[in-house]
Amino acid sequence: MKKYMISILAVVLTLVTLAWPIPVLASPASDACEGIKLAGGTCDSGGADGDVKKLVQVIVNTLSIIVGAASVIMIIVGGFRYVISGGDSNGVSGAKNTIMYAIIGLVVVIFAQVIVAFVYSNATTSGGGSGGAEKTSTPKEDASNTQKKNWVV
């Protein structure tokens, strides 16, 4: 029975590997911009920040897909182990652990996506220091603030 499960797992992993879409890091937008520039037009491709953001997104998304697929496969394997255990307490606990750790893996992948998006957006929007420019008041606002302070007793 163990050989049967290993052969099924090997076939599934082979099919997933062969059918997996490979991300291409080529940038058709930059090629299009080059053509527009040759024709005498202008094109804004987003600059180096856009390229870094795309690269980070491709890497995170690819790793998330791989880990997510592995987690789903392990949930299926855990389900098979649970059904095959036949009531054996060691087999049932092993199957439950497999399913639990696979679900934990999925949760980690989801949080990794959120954390990377949060860190990247904060790293690219803040310029350091206090996090933004301080507001300066105009003389008219200063006069109104002074008047408001005078009324407070």
Describe the structure in brief:
The chain contains five helices and no strands.
Largest sheet descriptor: none
Taking all Cα atoms into account, the compactness measure Rg is: 28 Å
In sequence order, what are the helices and strands, one letter per element?
Answer: HHHHH
First-last Cα distance: 86 Å
Structural notes for this entry:
This protein is mainly alpha-helical. The protein has a domain at 51-124. The chain is 76% helix and 0% strand. It has five helices and no strands. The chain has helices at 2-19, 28-38, 47-84, 89-125, 139-151. The protein is elongated, with a radius of gyration of 28 Å. The model is unreliable at 129-134 (pLDDT under 50).
